[in-house]
Write a structure and sequence with these properties.
Structural class: little secondary structure
Number of helices: 1
Bound molecules: iron/sulfur cluster
Strand content: 5-15%
Strand order of the largest sheet: 1-2
């Protein structure tokens, strides 16, 4: 009787290659980068494209150069950045 190998966590992190977005902008300036409600900031666009829950994705550092799906963030009251 064989056992299935453990399921590895998804490596999804960025929506596209970092650096393909507007010059000088970072993921920290992007509206797709949101707090997952638990421990980290993830890219909601990457999660949407991969069909994953945002909390199942890898964290996105705020200092990463923006990708081509960059969308300017709209500050919301009480939203830590
Ligand atoms: S720039 Fe925005 S859409 Fe692109 S990886 Fe960063 S957070 Fe995601």
């Amino acid at each position: 009787m064989s056992r299935r190998p453990p399921i590895k966590p998804p490596k999804t992190r960025f929506a596209h290659v970092p650096g393909g977005g507007p010059t000088g902008k970072t993921c920290g300036d992007c509206g797709h980068r949101r707090f997952d409600g638990r421990t980290k900031y993830t890219c909601q666009e990457a999660a949407r494209m991969a069909g994953l829950r945002p909390e199942a994705c890898q964290p996105v550092p705020a200092t990463t150069d923006a990708c081509k799906y960059f969308t300017p963030a709209t500050p919301r009251p009480g939203d830590p950045r």
